[in-house]
Design a protein that fits this description.
This protein has helices spanning 18-27, 57-67, 83-96, 121-131, 141-148, 158-170, 215-229, 234-255, 269-277, and strands spanning 3-13, 31-42, 51-53, 74-77, 102-105, 110-111, 114-115, 136-137, 175-181, 187-194, 199-206. It has 278 residues and is of the alpha/beta class. The protein has one domain: UDP-N-acetylmuramoyl-L-alanine:D-glutamate ligase (3-Layer(aba) Sandwich). Bound molecules: 3-hydroxy-5-(hydroxymethyl)-2-methylisonicotinaldehyde (PXL).
């Protein structure tokens, strides 16, 4: 069985990070090993959340895994709690990167032009350094703008999106994906760039006029899972991930338009499994 190790926080309530990565990766038929970076009572959009930093455990867990000679088909990082953790992950990557696996970084830091509570520009620049070690990076436009020190804009031209993608791959990764891309008011989707083939790829769906929390983590978990489970290409996996996220948003929108807390991704797991077989 294939195995992905995912490195991000546990937000105990508020469907995101590990509480979505674990069920989604498992449902796709891939073992999900976890390296939790922090435990929070909720994600950081709630007021008064608790935060326990688990950085001290990271090197010890890695050392044990190295002794056990564990290997991973993909190393997938999401929300990281501190700059110290970013530096620990540089060592983790050196320990567990092989010729047969890939490093997939979702530099979770913000959305809608703003960084999440707890992050600042310095953190974004450290995250950029980590991204140099990735094979694939998956920022949204906010995260890409902070890392590349570009002004965030509500609307980008296709030329600008392409420039950002090329800049991201210039850091090191072979492939970069931007999420939350839109060139028409009724469309939303992704654009990717493959440095080796010099090809861009876009995939859009009809825009649903609402934003829910945690959809970026659902997207990344599905994308990395789809790439690993059947050795799907990035392009095919992008379609699967966009389609699944769209279904989860649409279902939530139909049933509870006001809910900003997370999407009904669980109900759509059968859809995802079917979609993988197509
Ligand atoms: O969904 C991204 C995410 C992950 N983890 C924590 C968060 C957020 C977004 O706010 O707060 C703790």
């Amino acid at each position: 069985m294939k195995r992905i190790v995912t490195i991000q926080d546990i937000s105990c309530v508020g469907k995101c990070s590990l509480t979505v990565a674990l069920p989604i990766i498992s449902a796709m038929g891939v073992e999900a090993a976890v390296l939790p970076t922090a435990v929070l009572s909720t994600h950081t959009m709630f007021k008064g959340f608790t935060f326990r930093d688990l950085s001290n455990d990271i090197p010890k867990i890695a050392e044990h895994w190295e002794k056990e000679k564990f290997n991973f088909d993909a190393i997938y990082t999401g929300y990281l709690g501190s700059i110290e953790q970013i530096n620990m992950l540089k060592d983790f990557f050196k320990q567990f990167k092989t010729n047969d696996n890939f490093i997939f970084i979702d530099p979770v830091m913000g959305d809608n032009g703003k960084l999440y509570t707890g992050f600042n520009q310095k953190f974004a620049l450290e995250m950029k350094e980590l991204c140099r070690m990735a094979d694939i990076v998956v920022p949204n436009l906010t995260e890409a703008s902070y890392m590349l020190e570009r002004q965030y804009k509500e609307n980008y031209t296709e030329k600008e999106i392409k420039e950002i993608l090329v800049e991201l791959t210039n850091l090191g990764p072979k492939q970069a994906i931007l999420t939350g891309v839109s060139f028409k008011s009724n469309e939303l989707g992704v654009m990717s760039y493959n440095k080796e083939t010099n090809e861009f790829f876009t995939y859009f769906k009809e825009k649903i006029p609402v934003k829910y929390h945690g959809t970026g983590d659902i997207f990344s978990s599905t994308l990395v899972g789809a790439m690993v489970v059947n050795n799907n290409t990035l392009e095919e996996s992008l379609k699967i991930a966009v389609d699944y996220v769209w279904e989860t948003i649409n279902d939530t929108y139909k049933t509870n338009k006001e809910d900003a807390y997370g999407v009904n991704f669980e109900i759509k797991i059968p859809y995802l499994i079917n979609r993988l077989q197509k």
